[in-house]
Amino acid sequence: MEMRKPAFIITIDTEGDNLWARRDTITTENAKFLFRFQALSEKYGLKPTYLTNWEMANSDVFQELARDAIRRGAGEVGMHLHAWNSPPLVPLTENDNRHHPYLIEYPEQQIREKVKCLTRTLEDIFQVKMRSHRAGRWAFNETYAQILGENGYHVDCSVTPGVSWRSHPGAPGGNGGTDYTHYPSTAYYMDLHQIRQSGRSALLQVPVTIIPARRFRYLKKYDRLIEKVAGERVKNRLLRNMWLRPDGKNGNDMLRILSIALAEKRDYVEFMLHSSELMPGGSPTFPSDKSIEGLYRDLEILFQLASRYFKGATLSEYYDQFSSDTLCDGDGDDDDFADRGRRFYWVSPDKEVVGRSFFRGWH
């Protein structure tokens, strides 16, 4: 009997314009450019999850798009928290807009208050329960996970397996971001006291799809030595992680990721992009109209192939299916909670084409 297709999950970090510039004033012009992306996603049966921060939650334009997508079951709104401008505002550095401190660098009570405030704001605006979340700047820890649980979140997607953010500073004198080098790459219920491990909490971790380029995989066993000798940034370049995240140059890599995911019988892939990367000049990666048109050419090919071999799902829809599988198929031990992400999959009857050559013709 043919099993169901794996999920194709689109996650959009929905935030202000070109935050990489670290300006004092944040604008939200990129909201106007999301309608085109939503339409393209729907053309191929895909459903974006808009992980939304403070300024975009208060954008009238984004509210119009998101309410319509929610009403039609064509997308989801989740939470994405940037600590430096999400109330209640309590300065952590001499210039938070310049340093962009990580939420996990704040005192626990302030973390709790910021999460509660943005959660309530999103729920009041969109009239739906917030279930999904991604940490701002990928910074996540046990305290943060426990607070998400307290606020009723079901799924987090902050983990970037094989990637460390330690060399990316937040507050001056801090420890940098979270090191995900040895985290799982498939979905698992988190141990809220040791988030790298599976546990029995209700919080499901759905890591971003990141795969080491095959010719560099043999280096993975030497990652700590490389980091010690050459530094973290050099290590990350050498190991050449392939993200399911467009950068204007990686069209073939993204198609290879789909092929690898099917060959490895993964039950989902997770695409990510920032909302501002869909606007010309909204990011360093896509600075012009020409670069945006190139991005949409890549997305058209990627989404068309995804629609053939995968099924579009929001983060919450994936969570519901994952939870159902766990209850119906497992025997309740820890291994069931650890390994669900590898047990349910679908492979096309023409898997030879999928595995070896479905990205031929990429231009």
Which range does the strand content fall in? Answer: 5-15%
Q: Would you count the extended β strands for me?
A: 12
- What is the N-to-C succession of helices and strands? EHEHHEHHEHEEEEEHHEHEHEHHH
Radius of gyration: 20 Å
Structural class: alpha/beta
Number of helices: 13
Biggest sheet details: 10 strands, mixed
The overall pLDDT, averaged over residues, is: 88
Indicate the percent of residues in helices.
25-40%
Shape: globular
**Uncertain residue ranges:** 330-363
Task: Please give the alpha-carbon distance between the first and last residues.
Answer: 36 Å
Explained architecture:
This protein is of the alpha/beta class. Helix content is 37%, strand content 14%. The protein is built from 13 helices and 12 strands. Strands 1, 2, 3, 4, 5, 6, 7, 8, 11 and 12 form a 10-stranded mixed sheet that branches. Helix 1 links the parallel strand 1 and strand 2. Helix 9 runs parallel beside helix 10. The longest helix is centred in the C-terminal third of the chain and has 21 residues. The C terminus is likely disordered.
